[in-house]
Amino acid sequence: MPINEQTLESFLSGNLSILDEIIGTDAAELKSILNSATITAMGKSEILNQVSVASSASAQKAIINTRLNTYSRVATNTMMKDAPSDTKYVYVGPIDDRTRDECLDMASSPPITESEIISQFGYAPLVDGGGINCRHKWEIASDEGIKLFEGKKAQQVIKDKTKPKVNALSNAGKFTNTKDATNFMLENGVENAAVSNMNIGVVNEMSGALGKIPSKYRNNIVLGDFANFKKITDRKLAGGSHNYGVSISLPKVDTKLLTFAEKKAIFESPLSGGDFHIIGVNTRKYKTLEKITERKLLIQKQYFEKNGRNYFLNTDGKVTVHHEFGHIVHNQLSSEQRKLWDNIAEKWAEKANADILKVKQGWTEHYAEAFAEAWGAYNAGDRTLLPLEVKEFIKEIKNA
Ligand SMILES: [Zn+2]
Fold first, then answer.
1. Are strands 112-113 and 88-92 parallel, antiparallel or unpaired?
2. Mean pLDDT score, 186-191
C-alpha cells in the first residue's frame, strides 16, 4: 500500500463520520490540514502536531491521535513488508514522565530490524504501539527517522524512575549528605529544619529516628540546633547533665515560625491550630554522636561514683536522638495512654538502675523521661534493658 494522499484520503473518508462526531466543526479544518500536508510516512508526526493544535478538547485529541497514529503505524508496517530484511527501525515519539514503561523500553532500544522488534517486543507494537492513546511508533531509522529518535532521553527517564525516591521511608537513616536527609525529612512530616550546619551523622540519625515514629505522630515537627530552638521557642534551655537534646510541643501561635497573618487566622478560627513538635540538638557543645556518647559515659561515671547508681539508661549518642523523638511521641499520646504509661513507668523506675527514669515532667508529673529512654532503647539501642511490660507498651504505640 503506497503512502500517498489517496490512501490517507480513503482512510479519512472511511472515518469522517467518526471525526465529525468527535470534533464537530473542526472536522473540515482537520481534513484540510491533512490534505495540505506532504503525505509521507515522516510527514505524519508534523500532521499530528497540527491536529493537536487545531482541536481543542484533550479527550477529542486523544481519540484522533490514537486513530491517526494507528493509521501511520499501519502505513509504516506496510512499508516494512517491502523493505529489505536488514532495514533498521527506531521507536519514535515524545519521551516524558507520561510515557508508559512499554514505550520507554522500546524507545531506549538502539536501531533494530523488524524481526528483532517482533522477537523482543512481539507483533502488537507494530500496529498498536504501546496501546490506547499511544503517541509512539516504530519508524525507519533513516536520517529523518533518527532525528525523531530519543533513545538517550528514554534511558534517562527509565533510570530516574528506578532510582529510589529520596522521600521513600526505606531511606530513613541511610543518608550520606545533609541535603538529601533534609529533603527526606521535609517530605515526611518535618515542617521546618535548620540543620544545614549540623554534622551529617546527627542529621542522618534524625532521619532514622523520624522513620521510626508512627506516621500519625510524624507531622508538624521542627528540627534544629540549640540556637535555633531558642530562636523559635523563646525558651531558655534546661541546664545540667540532660543537655544533649531538648524536645517540646508548643501551640503553633506560641512559636516564631508563623507569619502574623497565619497567627491571626488561628486566633480567628474555632480550631486551635495545633502544636509544633520542636527538637533541638546541642551542636554547640556536642558536634557528633560520638561526642554525646563520650560525654554521657563521663557523666554516668561521675554520677555512679557519687551515688552508687546509674543516671542514664542509654549512653549512646545515636540513642539520644531517638530519645528526643520519643518525647514528641509521648507528647501526642492521649491522657489515657499516658496514665497507663505512668503506672508502668513508676514500677520500672523503682526497680531499674537508671535514675533518669524517675524524672517526672513539670506540673503534669508524667514519666516523660522514662518514655523517651524506653523509646530510644527499643528503636535504636538495647531492648534487653527493657522489662516485658515496657517493651509491650512501646510496641503497641508503634503498631497503633
Ligand atoms: Zn529527655
1. antiparallel
2. 95
